[in-house]
């Protein structure tokens, strides 16, 4: 990976050789100084000593320049290698499927360490250490002979070599980790351009006997032969207890994971045969905890899109009922939201997230408990914005996960999930009249 800098590396190694070879000249000059004392004339001795001393000074300047070039060459090549490894590793990480990041060894902290520490460890292996060793060996071997301290210097060198090998071992281990990452083929390639794109996407979704198990929890069956048909432009709600598989359904639609068995059909086509970027561009997700970047409000709304006009941004914020709030801010749409939107309240972040979804004009709207973490006032405001988003496009399909059953009474279909499969389905009135699982949940919700 350092091939583009081969000239710089070659210069560095040439400087190492010259630097090491020049060390022997000091011994030669020292001999010349000693020989100067054979002359009887004081002036002649003085002349030879000064001349040799000047040559020693000149040699020191030359060695300084050689070492400076050597260190600079290895530093440049090492930093370029580190930069290249980090960039390639980050690109490879972006390609990986979500399941890859569920593993403890691939947590955010571990990955940050890998990108910083491991890449730097590889730089140490290719940096100045090897060049310094090449020069110091020749120089210190002369010192050993002159001062007769072989045992002490041997001990110091043994420690130095041991430390060097420890660094090399760490560098090799880091290099192996990076090469494993570079060679890994993700099960769901986020950078893939392959797959079919539907010309006239209607928004029909079908879960056909879907079974799903998270790769990191192989003993837990999350979805068990799930059968669900969502017609185009239909508003469907999913309800059920915690861990019944509601959010998993949305993650499968976003193709964060692939089903263990069964099929998910989008307009009759297996989702695995469709282009991944195309699928995600037609699904708009509003989750419980919206993620905003440390950018301006306008940049957050248009994030990832090109040539977005301010008019489109204002149109999206107006539909999300956040435009008036933004206009009241001193910097308006140029206001920075802080890390993870820390400068905004939960309701304000959620409405900006809704505007970010609406500006993309998704065919399918996915709402994953979008108001569950809010107080009653913010919940009502955000709920009105969500209902407006569902009404504005009659052809838009909506899949809603709700924590309050009062927000889904108008849905065309309500499905009650339990242990990974649907136990009840129907409209609000139909399910209430059955007095089954939904009715019990509704009664419990009213008590709260």
How would you describe this protein?
Residues 10-138 form the ABC transmembrane type-1 domain. The chain is of the alpha/beta class and 448 residues long. It folds into two domains: 3-183, Up-down Bundle (ABC transporter transmembrane region fold); 205-447, P-loop containing nucleotide triphosphate hydrolases (Rossmann fold), CATH 3.40.50.300. It is 54% helix and 12% strand. It has 15 helices and ten strands. It has helices spanning 6-35, 42-95, 98-102, 108-126, 128-147, 150-183, 246-253, 276-281, 297-301, 310-319, 323-328, 346-358, 376-391, 428-434, 437-447; strands at residues 205-212, 223-230, 235-240, 261-266, 269-270, 283-286, 364-368, 397-401, 413-418, 421-426. The strands form two sheets. The protein has a six-stranded mixed sheet, sandwiched between helices. Strand 7 (364-368), helix 13 (376-391) and strand 8 form a beta-alpha-beta unit. Helix 1 packs antiparallel against helix 2, helix 2 (42-95) runs antiparallel to helix 4 and helix 12 (346-358) packs parallel to helix 13. It starts with 5 loop residues before the first helix and ends with a helix.
Give the name of the CATH architecture of the largest domain.
3-Layer(aba) Sandwich
> What is the top-level CATH class of the largest domain?
Alpha Beta
Instruction: List the domain count as a whole number.
Output: 2
What separation lies between the terminal Cα atoms? 62 Å
Q: Looking at this structure, what is the CATH superfamily of the largest domain? A: P-loop containing nucleotide triphosphate hydrolases
Give the averaged pLDDT, no decimals. Answer: 82
Largest β sheet strand count, sense and barrel closure: 6 strands, mixed
The sequence of SSEs as H and E is HHHHHHEEEHEEHEHHHHEHEEEHH
Number of helices: 15
